[in-house]
Structures are given as C-alpha cells and as structure tokens.
Automatic annotation (TrEMBL):
Principal EC category: translocase
Pfam families referenced in this protein's UniProt entry, alphabetically: PNTB
Homology family: Belongs to the PNT beta subunit family.
Membrane-spanning residues: 6-25, 32-50, 56-74, 86-105, 117-140, 161-178, 184-204, 211-230, 236-255
Catalytic activity: NAD(+) + NADPH + H(+)(in) = NADH + NADP(+) + H(+)(out)
Entry keyword annotation includes Cell membrane: yes
Record GO cellular component, one term: plasma membrane
Species name: Saccharomonospora marina XMU15
Molecular function, one GO term: NADP binding
Protein name: NAD(P) transhydrogenase subunit beta
EC number(s) reported in the record: 7.1.1.1
C-alpha cells in the first residue's frame, strides 16, 4: 500500500506541474486549473490510503464543511471581489497549518522524542502560517473596505514593535526546540506571530495590497512545505514548495511592475485613497469634458484605437459593452487593440480574465511593452477606469510616490478619452496628470453606461 501511495503522489505532482504550466496563458488556464484540481484530488485520496489513517467521520465532516462553504463562495464571487477571496482562502490555508503545528505539539508532548528537524520545521510552520492567516485577513478587510485602505501605523514605534513581536515568537520557538513543553510556549508562538502578521500588514496601503496577497500566498506555501517535512508527508512538501516558489516569482514580478522593492512594500505607507506624501496636488485645474457622441465620432474616424482597461471597467462590468463597441469599430475597418498593464485591476491577469469573459480575441490583448510601442501610432486611446498605471507623473515628477513605476504611455497617443465616474484618485491616492493633458477629454459617468452610449452613437453613424 505504501508503494501504491507513493505512485499516486508522483502522478499528483506531475498533474500539479502540468496544470501550473497551463496557467501561463488565458487559452489554457481553465484546463490547467482542472488538471491541477485532479492532481489534488489524487493526492488527498493517496493520503487517506496511508496506513493508520482513521477518524473517518471527522474527515468526512471536514470535507463536507469545506465543500459547503467553498463551492458556493467561489461560484457567487464577483470578478471585482476575486482578490479578496484569494486573500481569504489563502489565509485559511496558513491558519490550518498553524493549528496543525499546535496539534502536533500537544500530541508529541512538546516534540519529546522527535528529531530536532521535526520540531524546527513544525515551529517554522506555526510562525509563518499564523503570520499568513492574520495578515491575509487584514488584506481581505482592506480590499473589501471593511478596514481603511490607508496605512494604519503606530508611528515611530511601528518597526521596533514588529521586531519585538517577531523576536518573542522566535524566542518561544527556541524554548520549545530546546526541550520546553509548556502549552503557554506554543500559545506564545501563535499569538506573537498573529500580532506580528497584523502589525506588518496594517501599515501597508491599498496600492500595494495585490503584492502583499501574493507574498502571503508564498508564505502559506512555505509553511505547508515545512509542515509536510515535520509530518513526513511528501504531498505537502511538494505542493507547498510549488506554491511558495510560484508565489515568490509572482511577488517579484508584481513588485517590478510597480517599481517597488519588496522590503519597501513590507515597510508600508503607500496608497489608500488620500494624497500620498510628496505628490503634487493642484486645485481647480481645468479639464476638458466630452460626450458619448463626440467620443464616437472621434473613434469612428480613427485608424487605430487602443482600449486601456482598469479597475473601473471591472467594477462597472463593462467588458461586454466594450467588446460590442470594438466589433462596431472593426466593422468600419478600424484597428482595435487592448493595452494591458501587469497590475491593472487588483491582481495579475484581472483584465485578461474579464476581457476573455467577453470573448475578446487573445491576440488583441497587448502586454505593456508592445502597447507602449504602438501608442505613438494610435489615434485614440480609450482609458476605462485605469488610473495609476497611466499617470505620466511616474515618468516626469521625481517627487511623486509612483515615480519610476512602469506605466502605459497613453499620453503618446494623438488623443486620449478617459472614462471615469469622477476626478477621484486611484489606489496610490494621487492625482493623475493625464487628466489635465490638453490631448485628454473626460467622459464622466458609469463605464458601462458610457460605453453603451458610445455604442448607440456608433450605430447611428
């Protein structure tokens, strides 16, 4: 039976990796998800076949509860709320690992008669899993707007307090690994780690929250791998390392896309709805408004139109109206493309998924570098809710908090039309200099309604 379980694990790992490969492109993402899910099902079955497995009613209860909660939540969640669901589900994984570490401490009487590496791996999993759980809950609260997206700090005491909390968690862990078996020690590990997770994520502003979610996801994977080592469970080790490695790579890519270092993100203080320190806020600058009719005429007589989607399009669920508009323009012989910034929306691939839902051809989706090379030949750039990723201040204003962040060069187009509800700022909390460019016209209102009005005007031309 042990050999059979090992074979099943190998099959599961192969499916994990093959499924992950499928997630590299929109065309294969759904298939990749299903393949990885089948792999996880095989890994679960293999684990249940291990000798000594018992408590079947308790296992069935856990599986049943997870299914009842998870399936409806995943089916009903809106695409705009997907990042916070990812944060919440990821946090649950970290919390589960922390609880398993606690159970192992109790079952082994403080890891008595266990090899030292088991104690170290389990305690590492307890610390990291607890940090991930509580940090992910704060990330969820900020994205769900249950907590203010602004940085929440205790001032100059923030970093010293973080150091003290981490040191307390590590000290309790060292005491346990040295032979301590008091229940208060493991509780100290979990509580200090929980407070550390809270105090690390609270000072991070809304603009950095997508990167934080990815980072916490990687930490959950590492904690699972460590617990797999402690439990001698190969499935946990491999799955955890895959999550940890892929999450780390994604975190690094997202940080580069924002021109932010990961230590700077963890230090906090960026974004959240108010004007960020160092940003220029100029009152009462004139902007040029336009109408749906004028926007339709402008695009109808263009040769090339680039649509720049952002979170505003996601909130308004305007992707289907955008596709209808693009079809009308293409019927007139106009070249229509979509410029996608790596961190547009609230998670990588957010815009790709929304546009794919509306059956926008994948070849029409242009990555940032390709888009930027095409903007100088673009007659009209239609910006739908994208804010910080189109802000020229990232290139021109050294005092701006987003200075140096790679952006979409929509201001290089011959003309720009921006669809927004208001002049409100984006996640970074600063004004978008693009709005005041003489080439820019603002069409205020709900994105779906505005695009729908443009569609009707195009039909009438």
């Amino acid at each position: 039976m042990t050999t059979f379980v090992s074979v099943l694990y190998i099959v599961a790992f192969a499916l994990f990796i093959y499924g992950l490969m499928g997630l590299t492109g929109p065309r294969t993402a759904v298939r990749g998800n299903w393949i990885a899910a089948v792999g996880m099902a095989i890994a679960v079955i293999a684990t249940l076949l291990l000798p000594g497995m018992g408590n079947w009613w308790l296992i069935a209860l856990g599986v049943g509860l997870g299914t009842v909660v998870g399936v409806p939540a995943a089916r009903k969640v809106k695409m705009t709320a997907m990042p916070q669901m990812v944060a919440l589900f990821n946090g649950v994984g970290g919390g589960a690992v922390a609880l398993i570490a606690w159970v192992e401490f109790r079952d082994t009487a403080g890891y008595a008669h266990e090899p030292l590496y088991v104690a170290i791996a389990s305690l590492f999993a307890a610390i990291v899993g607890s940090v991930s759980f509580w940090g992910s809950n704060i990330a969820f609260g900020k994205l769900q707007e249950l907590i203010s997206g602004r940085p929440i700090t205790v001032g100059k005491l923030q970093q010293p307090l973080n150091v003290v909390l981490l040191a307390a968690a590590v000290a309790c862990a060292v005491a346990i690994a040295s032979g301590g078996d008091s229940q208060w020690l493991i509780i100290g590990v979990l509580v200090a780690s929980a407070l550390f997770g809270l105090m690390v994520v609270l000072p991070i502003g809304g603009a950095d929250m997508p990167v934080v979610i990815s980072l916490l996801n990687a930490l959950t994977g590492l904690s699972a791998a460590a617990m797999g080592l402690a439990l001698n469970n190969t499935a946990l080790i491999v799955a955890g390392m895959i999550v940890g490695a892929s999450g780390s790579i994604l975190t690094n890519l997202m940080a580069k896309a924002m021109n932010r270092s990961i230590p700077a993100i963890v230090a906090g203080g960026f974004g959240g709805g108010a004007a960020a320190g160092g940003a220029k806020v100029v009152e009462d600058r004139p902007v040029r408004s336009t109408s749906a009719a004028d926007a339709a005429i402008q695009m109808a007589y263009a040769s090339k139109v680039m649509v720049v989607p952002g979170y505003g399009m996601a909130v308004a669920q305007a992707q289907h109206a955008v596709r209808e508009m693009a079809d009308l323009l293409e019927a007139k012989g106009i070249d229509v493309g979509y410029a996608i910034h790596p961190v547009a929306g609230r998670m990588p691939g957010h815009m790709n998924v929304l546009l794919a839902e509306a059956d926008v051809p994948y070849e029409s989706l242009k990555e940032m570098d390709e888009s930027n090379s095409q903007f100088p030949q673009t007659d009209v750039a239609l910006v739908i809710g994208a804010n910080d990723v189109t802000n020229p201040a990232a290139q021109s204003d050294p005092s701006s908090p987003i200075y140096g962040m790679p952006i979409l060069h929509v201001n290089a187009s011959r003309s720009v039309i921006v669809l927004k509800r208001s002049m409100g700022s984006g996640f970074a909390g600063i004004e978008n200099e693009l709005f005041f460019d003489p080439k820019t016209s603002m069409l205020f209102g709900d994105a779906k309604t505005s695009v729908g009005d443009i569609v009707e005007e195009l039909k009438a031309l």
